[in-house]
Design goal:
single chain, 392 residues, alpha/beta, 5-stranded parallel β-sheet, 16 helices
């Protein structure tokens, strides 16, 4: 590919990055969606039911410690060598963020009320990567997001931030695009917060761990290719000029046919719309009309997102347990399973709790300290555990 989408993929592969076509593509689509969103809010191009369309794609990368959560953020946002560094697209990175740090607060100085604007204001036209966003993670693990302030939810949706505090109100507009990450857990994606994020889920196999190990070793002494970096950044600048010429947007029927095939819930359709829009922006070749179409690559990305969302809904930490059992041929001693889960950052207590939760809902069987996945044949012993070991 010679468009910006393909150029970014090739640039990351040249750096020795692994799984680029899987885990990097949502970020590239998010960049395209961000570019269009700023254009739309300046020029009022695309509306939905009388409201200005907000195309931002916020990303939550769910993976165990050490499995590329911050890595891909850095490839785009890090100082000096990130693909977006030095382009007109504003960017930023933060290590830790609270709800108050995101929205803002007020204080008194010599008796006067002084608003302290949050990160959503300071990065109001930027893409910002945050390594640890505690308020988001806690809220998404809850059954309802009532603990999370409405001001934060609207900052990620419409961009309007209105918060009335004891010391006075905070009010501003933001079009920040948020990229963040967390460790595996079960999230309530039907909540207001879950509907505002595109999810990436990485449930690593042993093979993945081996490949990542060698990829890291092989990447030592791979320096940024400055001509390639400059070419990508130049193409980003050109993309901004191309998008400024867009006067009309159409969503082709094939997009909705694809979403119907994937059985996407109606309240999540807008997330897939935005991914497709961002993808088409990054492959846009100019003109006044942006046609949001679905080619094979776009459909592949939409299918990935559907798979990831379903995985996170079921519980990505549960998926880790199932993955380990399957890699051991279908049955495993619970002590060995606990040891295996240590490499994903889960201690014995946490992994035991996960196993018993899965046994309780009937996903796993357990007898005599041996654990298996119900309904699956044990490849190691060529038996069906429910039949040959008794129903645990």
């Amino acid at each position: 590919m010679t468009d910006l989408y393909g150029m970014m993929i090739d640039a990351l592969k040249d750096r020795g990055c692994l799984y680029v076509e899987k885990f990097a593509v949502p970020y590239i689509c998010s960049i395209g969606a961000h570019i269009f969103n700023l254009h739309n809010h300046r020029n009022k191009i695309l509306f939905e039911a009388g409201r200005l369309y907000n195309s931002r794609v916020h990303i939550m990368f769910v993976a165990p410690p050490g499995y590329s959560k911050t890595f891909f953020q850095d490839q785009f946002l890090m100082a000096d060598w990130g693909l977006l560094w030095g382009t007109p697209i504003k960017i930023g990175q933060e290590g830790y963020m609270t709800e108050a740090g995101w929205v803002g607060s007020v204080t008194q100085v010599n008796g006067e009320i002084v608003p302290i604007m949050g990160a959503a204001y300071h990065y109001r036209e930027a893409i910002v990567g945050i390594e640890e966003f505690s308020a988001l993670v806690v809220a998404m693990r809850a059954q309802h997001s009532s603990a999370l302030d409405t001001a934060m939810l609207t900052s990620l949706d419409t961009g309007r931030v209105r918060k009335r505090l004891r010391g006075g109100p905070i009010s501003y507009e933001t079009q920040v695009t948020l990229w963040c990450a967390t460790q595996p857990a079960r999230f309530d994606l039907t909540s207001g917060l879950g509907r505002r994020f595109v999810f990436i889920s990485f449930v690593p196999r042993r093979k993945d761990a081996e490949q990542l190990k060698y990829a890291r070793r092989n990447a030592i002494n791979i320096r940024p290719d400055i001509p390639t970096l400059n070419l990508v950044r130049s193409r980003v600048r050109a993309k901004l000029d191309e998008v400024e010429n867009i006067k009309f947007v159409t969503f082709e029927e094939e997009l909705y046919e694809t979403l119907d095939k994937l059985k996407v819930e109606f309240f999540e359709e807008i997330l897939y719309e935005r991914i497709a829009l961002g993808y088409n922006v990054m492959r846009f070749e100019g003109g006044k009309v942006l046609e949001v179409e679905v080619d094979k690559e776009c459909e592949r990305i939409l299918r990935l997102e559907k798979m990831w969302r379903d995985e996170v809904k079921r519980g990505s930490e549960f998926a880790l347990v199932l993955q380990v059992i399957r890699e051991h041929g279908g049955t495993i001693d619970i002590g060995e399973l606990r040891e295996e889960m240590l490499r994903f950052g889960l201690d014995w207590s946490q992994s035991t709790s996960l196993v018993f939760s899965l046994v309780k809902v009937g996903v796993l069987g357990m007898k005599g300290g041996v654990v298996w996945v119900r309904g699956e044949r044990c490849a190691r012993h060529n038996l069906r555990p429910e039949k040959d070991m008794g129903r645990g």
